[in-house]
Amino acid sequence: MRPIALSCGEPAGIGPEIAIAAWDHLRETCPFFWIGDPGHLPPGTPVAILDDPAAAIQASKSALPVLPLRFAAPASPGQPDPRNAAGVIAAIERGVALVQSGAASAICTAPIHKKALIDGAGFAYPGHTEFLAALAGRDRVVMMLASAQLRVVPATIHIALAEVPRALTPTLLRETIEITAAGLRDQFGIARPRLAVAGLNPHAGEGGAMGREETDWIAPLLQEIKGEFTLTGPHPADTMFHAAARARYDAAICMYHDQALIPIKTLDFDRGVNVTLGLPFIRTSPDHGTAFDIAGQGIANPSSLIAALRMAQDMAHSA
Description:
Layout: E1 4-7, H1 15-26, E2 32-36, E3 47-49, H2 56-59, E4 64-68, H3 85-101, E5 107-109, H4 114-121, H5 128-136, E6 142-146, E7 151-154, H6 164-167, H7 170-188, E8 194-198, H8 213-225, E9 230-235, H9 243-246, E10 251-254, H10 257-267, E11 273-277, E12 283-286, H11 303-318
Parallel strand pairs: 1-2, 1-5, 2-4, 3-4, 5-12, 7-10, 8-9, 8-10
Antiparallel strand pairs: 6-7, 6-11, 11-12
Binding site for substrate: 128-129, 265, 274, 283
Catalytic activity: 4-(phosphooxy)-L-threonine + NAD(+) = 3-amino-2-oxopropyl phosphate + CO2 + NADH
Main location: cytoplasm
């Protein structure tokens, strides 16, 4: 099994310390190598400097395997330095290149700080997902949040709630459903995915009494695109996420950000994983940010990163 590439993310955040904690937890069961500046790791970290990612499998048994990139400035916990922006971007690019070349089985990305990237390198993307799509030459990708209890996909993501009805089009919903079904088949090993689609309005519109989108176009679209996967809905979102309902589908397609993220963060806050579907390679990420307020204190919870690395490994086995 090829190792997983872990890009360093924002060096002033909790990324370096949770990387060490994840390595200590996974060293013999899920080998990965960290791409970044070794000087940004916590003092006393056992490090194995690599020339070849393949060496990470053996090196991981006794030290954190590191593929070194020299950054422009030291890292001060909680204080992002725009001078390091180019290095953060280069680490992501290096990880993607290694996955595309076959030297790594997947890329897992530690959290970035977009303002520092904009200030220091003119970063032109809303976030990781869009940057990875550009590196892969893909126009459309899908964000999935996944844990052992639930997988959710929001059709619209970081926009105001008032903008959702305009942004949510038949084309967008169709692409979201089709990319999700393909991702579950190709990267999760689910031969015939079962997808449940939420309604946009309360009670899925209740026959038009609380909104017309479900009857006017969502339900007809779902009937039109049923194929090599099981597709049900539109369902009232308030009855989709209890245990018995979750047992009936492999992923829930939601209409907007909070409709998707509130259930998974309520069910499994510490172990949620961000997965990008629609890329020609496997990408996972912990479902949290840089946490500047606790960076460098040694108290950051590595559970989401550990889950992201394990999920990347499982997806690589299933692909």
